[in-house]
Input
Amino acid sequence: MMWLFQLFPRLLWTRRFGMVGLVGLMALSVDALERRANTSLTLPQQPPRLGYKWVDTFPGVTFANPVTIASPPGETNRLFIVEKGGHIAVVTNLANPRRSVFLDLTPRGLMTGGESGVLGLAFHPGFATNGFFFVFYSLSNHVSDDGRGLHQRLSRFQAIPPTANQAELSTERPLITQYDQAGNHNGGDLHFGPDGYLYVAVGDEGGGNDTYNNAQRLDKDFFAGILRIDVDARPENLEPTPHAALRDGNALPYRIPADNPWVSATDLGGKALDRQKLRAEFYAIGLRNPWKFSFDTESGILFCGDVGQEVREEINIIVKGGNYGWPYQEGTLAGPKAGSKPARIPLLPPLHEYLHGSTGTLTGNSVTGGRVYRGSRLPELKGSYLFGDYISGNLWGIQPDAGYSGAKTRLTSERFSAGFGADPRNQDLLVASYAENKIKRLDFDPAVVGSPLPSLLSGTGAFSDLATLEPQPGIEAYTINAPFWSDGAEKRRWFSVPTTNAFIGFSVTNPWTFPTGTVWIKHFDLTTNEITGAKRRIETRFLVKNASGAYGITYRWAPGSSDATLVSDQGLEEAIEILTADGSVRTQHWSYPSRSSCLACHTSGAGTALGFSTWQLNHDETQPDSSSVNQLRVLANAGYFNRPVPSTDTLPRLVATTNSAASLEYRVRSYLDANCSACHHPGGTAPNTWDARFGTPTRLTRILDGTLNDPGSSSSNRIVVQGDLDHSMLLSRISTRGARQMPPLGSNELDRKSIELVRDWILSQELLSRGSYEAWRFGFLDGLPLAETEPSADADRDGATNEQEKLAGTHPRNAADKLAVEIRSQAGSLELVTTQPANRRLRIEVKNSAWIDDPWTELPLKAATPLHPRDPLQVVIPLGSSPGEGRYYRVRVDGL
Output
């Protein structure tokens, strides 16, 4: 966190006191935790595998957010990986792989957040002689005739010679540089067809519901379909009609194949086309976000995965002149603009579609696409179209010649599968694992590999008494500050580090690291009788840390059972009857998570174990003798951490969302960290780029007025708009259950108290008065020379910078208006007295001399109040009475 300082005039006193006395940490007595090794747990380090599986293709080689896999025609010993953040990597000598950077696009000024970035790569059919390859990528702030800002670009580059493992950025020749008003729905996949033409997938420009009216246009821009162009500019083909996207100063001319479907079109669905603007580049239209497509290497059929909006995901066979219906239809259902569909416009149904899944079994919510399997390793799959879903990770197979069917076979899963390719040596199916930064191949185990999972909870060795859930030695209970919402269930938690010589990697602000074999256990109870308060045991979950990351399993408690049974890897759904307080009965839908949905949140980037961190575990626990002791200190004293833990009173901590003594912002930021930060963090799996982590200052999170990949029905929608509920999509998404809910997993019931909390925050004076520095500067410093209005300036020369005055709520042009600090004598002792402003954290620091190099030490203030209180508080710090050497004090005021 960036700390902002409030420095006051020197406070010099003839007093020296011991810092140990100030810390005030009580010594742990008989209630101290004694660390013990666990010997009872029976869970294997790796879950058993049966049947199809993904295995690491290049052990020891990693990639940064890979999205595309490609290889030049005819080559068998090089593979190229598109990394969304700006690099195209090449892997040479595939049997003994070495990764290097083939092309670095970062100097171009990329937009890489959300669905933007480097997205597509295709090698020219004649690459072996001409070295030409084509890239689709996003420019962040390009200037064109259409406007300044985000542009999607298709460019040709050249490898000189073609066998070179590094290409020069200077060889770039743009073909299309299209202005784009939204960061989502970019498509970007590229492939050369059997006819030698380049096919390009383009999304509908973004927003929601076809915001910009692109999906049913042929005389506008390059959006919402599949383009087919002649990059060799053969003389028999046609010149494109003029467009601003083609006028880049170094643009490479291309032509339109003379047999493209709309070269002679005069209308679309009865609506006349402007022939002067005809985009005859289109091969197919009516696609929302065609993320990945591929040609079957034997039949030449073009398969495309088109990402749906609310309810359906599609696999389409793309044919010349095909119109796939968006936004008139979504799959075979009515789309958001079904009412404006022309009477005589033919729309093609998908080859296959699937509904968005529930949060437990999670069929999927974002189709990736795939390819027809033509490898030799798995002959039973030959000719099957294999495709995946980014959210659920599921990999399915369908038979393309079976026609439209709801039937598909689930083979395995890989969370956040961003793209598929083929091993050039044997055509094995490869997947770009976006979350694990790996390239994996599909393989098959004919028999169970690995130790089996216990079929009953009693077989896990976690509990010595299932009736009371008393854990075995070496398995310790813990509690957290701000729990994830789990549909009203009450939860208990335990953890186990395997041996006493294995340690947790402690960090104040970053996720902790954990030794292999660490296990976390979470048990759920649900109130099923609101009149008597009777509860039912629902499930007991395990998360096991292993060398490759982690895996999760859960055990279901049947009503009245004395033991819980293992839930299958596909998860389970259950309807639970709840007797309400008014005597009526309602049905609550409960989702037991699939193993792939467990790993959708428990990623290495999110710290693996959600809720096991400094800011979640930093709180006091009441002891049997009514005293209290800090949970982090207990763990530190027991020897769980790899380094000393600072005073817990100076460390960050979340606050319960129900704590009304805390500021609204503090409670909301705690809620967002607990419920959203697993995906919404830099490099996280969420397509949007706002940051939900508590340690990121609010002004840097992009929460306030942050733009959206999918703004929905209004371009005015933002993540949070101060004072505007209707356009704050964070509130909308947490207030929804279904396809657009947030968080997307783990809940079927609304968290009404947290919804109300976020509502109150959006409308609060606290948020409205927060404002930007620019707005504050205009209100308080208008008319002063510009240099006097900078955040680091001190306009009234009172020792506090303008930024500090803003934080403290004092007037920057009135030297008398400052945060009052005094040291006074009270009953023979000295004490420091000041005020903690509302929604601000107060830090009081001390040092021994006026020397600049002499470090300041924060006083570990023990306080029962929240770090960021709702109301201003008077703070009194006892300093003692013994005479001694001088001390200097300062007060800092920090914002969230």
Q: What stands out?
A: The longest strand covers residues 132-144. Residues 1-31 have pLDDT under 50 and may be disordered. The longest helix spans residues 664-676.
